[in-house]
Amino acid sequence: xxxxxxxxxxxxxxxxxxxxxxxxxxxxxxxxxxxxxxxxxxxxxxxxxxxxxxxxxxxxxxxxxxxxxxxxxxxxxxxxxxxxxxxxxxxxxxxxxxxxxxxxxxxxxxxxxxxxxxxxxxxxxxxxxxxxxxxxxxxxxxxxxxxxxxxxxxxxxxxxxxxxxxxxxxxxxxxxxxxxxxxxxxxxxxxxxxxxxxxxxxxxxxxxxxxxxxxxxxxxxxxxxxxxxxxxxxxxxxxxxxxxxxxxxxxxxxxxxxxxxxxxxxxxxxxxxxxxxxxxxxxxxxxxxxxxxxxxxxxxxxxxxxxxxxxxxxxxxxxxxxxxxxxxxxxxxxxxxxxxxxxxxxxxxxxxxxxxxxxxxxxxxxxxxxxxxxxxxxxxxxxxxxxxxxxxxxxxxx
Length: 398
Ligand code: ADP
What we know:
By secondary structure, the protein is α/β, with parallel strands linked by helices. The chain has 15 helices and 13 strands. It has helices at residues 67-80, 109-116, 126-139, 159-162, 168-172, 182-196, 247-255, 261-270, 273-278, 284-289, 293-317, 327-332, 334-343, 353-358, 379-397; strands at 4-10, 15-20, 28-35, 41-47, 52-58, 87-94, 105-106, 144-149, 203-209, 213-219, 222-226, 322-326, 371-374. The strands form two sheets. An eight-stranded mixed beta sheet has the order 5-4-3-2-1-6-8-7, sandwiched between helices. The chain has a five-stranded mixed beta sheet with strand order 11-10-9-12-13, with helices on both faces. Strand 4 and strand 5 form a beta hairpin. It is globular.
């Protein structure tokens, strides 16, 4: 019998976790998060009915809550509640699998070493993902740990879509376009046939519009291109990230403004995007509710760039059969979906305004040549599915 599965999503300032039953249904038994790592931490968890189990401030050290402390707090809490006594596997979201990892993998010392070699490709995220794996291994060495990669789903991109126009030796050392949000796209691809029917076998663009945002071009459910490249900075403007930027701007910032690497990193990752342009917020709800012209300009830019990249993804696919919206903004911001669909009239999308306000799932009219949809994503469930699959494989071989 399979035990329960914990899914960990360790970010730069938070750890999100979910507990799934390890049986065929993968029932969500509880979930929560520790936020505020690096400062004052807050630990919240709720059970399967959504009732709160804990909500407390943790880690009052002057240098702030560390990742390993947060992970240890989480594991100890689970052990005290006996909730983790049935846990036999932990699935981790790991941002980068490089060119090597095309699928989820069971983590052992050798794999951990290979994943450490990828840290320079994702220095802001990969170290935190790996620290969580190490923390679990030190407390529960018996447990199966599985790394599920944000980049793996995109390894089906044709070679030309992975290239930068840079000298070959750089490409050979891994400076290439990878693509991210892969677990979200993989989940969407897995439910597409039941939600949209036969178009799932055609040319589909999925718009993952959350705090991070990207588009993915799917042909027959396989990723053939994405707006994200070497890092999760590329492509669309996001909550606080700039998206695609003329690299000449970087040279200017360094040469003329005298900015150093950490200042440029902070600017591009944390101070740009919707927050930078509006000067108000990275939160789409706040911007939509604001009558400040700067909020309108940030939204205009977001919508314009989605439209431009949608054209690029349709070109990569040689046409378009369906457009799918997902993640926080994609699932909940009807005005943004409406504007993207209206701008994409040239591609053959005719919006059903009422269906869009209701939230779909289908938001295009019956006479629309290209259909448009809203489908909630579920990266945690995707990780749980992969983890269960590797757990079953291990039990078969045992
Ligand atoms: P993350 O990438 O951190 O997982 P989410 O997918 O949760 O982010 O998306 C967060 C974004 O979704 C925020 O910009 C938030 O404002 C937006 N969002 C969530 N709910 C709504 C809503 N009802 N209307 C508009 N935007 C929303």
